Structures
1.
Amino acid sequence: MSEKILVRGVNWIGDAVMTMPALKGLRKVYHESRTSLLVKPSVAPIFEKDPTIEEIILYEEKFQGIIGKLRLAQRLKKKGFSKAILFQNAFDAALITFLAGIPERIGYNRDSRGKFLTKRIPYHNDDRKVHHVDYYLNLLKATGISAAFSKPWIFLSLDERLAAREKMSVLRRPVLGINPGAAYGSAKRWLPARFAEVTAWFMRDTKGSVVIFGGAKEGDIANEIEFLVRRKGGTLPPHPPLSKGGQEGGSLSVLNLAGNTSLRELIALISECDVFLSNDSGPMHIAYAVGTPLVALFGSTSPDLTGPVGEGNVVIRPNLPCSPCFERTCNNDDRQCMYDILSEDVYLAIKKILQKKPAVFFDRDGTLCEDANYLSRRDDFRPLPGIDDLAALRSLGFSLIGVTNQSGIARGLVDEDFAREINNVFVERYGFDDFFYCPHLPEEYCSCRKPEPGMLHDARYKCGIDLKKSYVVGDKDADMMLARAVGAKAVLVRTGRQRDSAHADYVAEGLKEAVDFIMKDGRSGDVESRA
């Protein structure tokens, strides 16, 4: 059924990210409807490229006060919304939709706003009992909307990714991103000296670099850490000159960007980090929503409610009776919860999730085997010439991993067990380390359908892959754009219908030529990403 739906979004970056699974679930049920999101300008960029949202309406300062709310209500009324779903808990969220005359108004029955709602969802202080992702999903489920869990995902354009990569090209890889601030209050902030200590260890052990993030009001914290890191850096061995076998990247060790990025730039830059260390904060939520391996520090707040979502992340929290207290500042005036998080534990966590292995990722249909247009029968499975040559890549330490879009599963054209069976042939017969597939339709806007990099992120976690030292081999532009999205090298094989790609680093006639190129390129040590 086609409707015009208004969603009142939340005002904090972290909660905005945690509403994404609910927004995706809403879109899946009302896929023919037009969804508009009403949010403050401070969080609107989170959804700027999100295909589940047709329109973003800014709740600007001019809509504050009684007159402003009436103006906003009149604007919403002209748009003819039939349904309003209120993720924001505030009283005025319900009042404005009531004044706008929206026939169906759904929200939690809290903050004295029940009389303005047509469907009041019972509220029993559940936001202190369940993760906030579930809090928003439960609102939909209580209305009869079957919204399944999905990982929050912030969509980035390729241009945004490339611009961020260019900005960070001055840094040596691997790059540790740190976010030492937290807007909610000082009780959530780990000690600057310990951020600096962990950073110095990272730079010494990996010969890599650090980028410091933060808001305009967190410049003093960032500057203190930069000063301490540079002072500690005086005891570190100097970076060796770049060589063919050395670390890729630039020559800088520290880049302080606190207060110098827009929100969209921040999102893209965090996506380019190899690992991220953060207090419980907006950037922490951004990190897992762009697939960057994350170490999250919790003291006064609870990861059970606002912790990172998805695999490949580590949460460190103290074991204290006063934690979590949910206070902005420490009532005991000692922030013992933050002192109890040791630098050694944090650094060990970073080492645990920092990936080092290179891989070659292969598309399946049209690259490894003939494209049978939704391969669904074993008789139609025909591996392409050169597939036996892939084993040579192992001599240079490459893992072999398959990544394939299989929307035929969702369309009912391909049995999922059969798809797994074919994928497993490459593991058992041709020595692949793993094989990943996306079973979703394009209109589901998942993070795993190429060219979105979700499958590569899963491989990074499960197989220990350093994506920026890797290659993607495929027969379509989507494969080449996938490589560009993560900073891998892109190799187009002319085994399908496509003969060239503006996103390819190399074009090969077939698998053997692709292997020869990767072997030569890999031996040279030139495994840095295409900028």
2.
Amino acid sequence: MNPDGNQRLTGAIGALLLVPIAIEAATIVLGVHTFMSLHVFVGLLLIPPVLLKLVSAGWRFMRYYTRVDDYMLHGPPQVAMRVLAPVLVAATVVLFASGVAMGFLHGHALSLARSLHGPASVVWLALVGVHVLVYAKRAFVDAAADVVPAERRRVRGATVRASLVAAALVAGIVAGAAFVPAQHRWIDLQHGHHGDLNRRARGGDPLRPLRAASVRGARAGARARGSGPSPARVP
């Protein structure tokens, strides 16, 4: 892909990602357990567009550092973003991998995934915020250029770019919808952490009736043994 087309694709997919990322952040701020179903759906929806964004941005990095002339003419990426890019990529992989894994793992592996997911989400949202501040204006300009017919024709590959963006969005929606029947795997996670303690605190310990019956039986037996036979009345 030519560098101008690559820049437009990166801008278009970046602009598209702003809305679902904002929704995902809102579910965290408002209470992720309250909005867990929406959080899971949007998280799965984000995976294909985020992958396309990583591939598009990574392609530019690779072509620039392999000294391809057309990409060299566009100049290097900003220094700060070059430094943050590896951290953002790592946080992205950990965030989405742990999020998906939490719906399938159990025991220690599940605890590990949960311990990674929370910190990764904080790091990822912070870095995405920096990314938006730096590139938002350019992303909207590049995305708009592929919508205006006169500008669209100036850079070849517009149809391919539009198809890639549409395919990523459709794939995300399909992924989110496909796991709706299995969302209980994520929704039930809110009951998994200290679940037994919470149930007992609410009086919902499933063994509580058996324990109470055992205690009552032991007390009744003790009273029976201590009282002995009743003396007969003398008429």
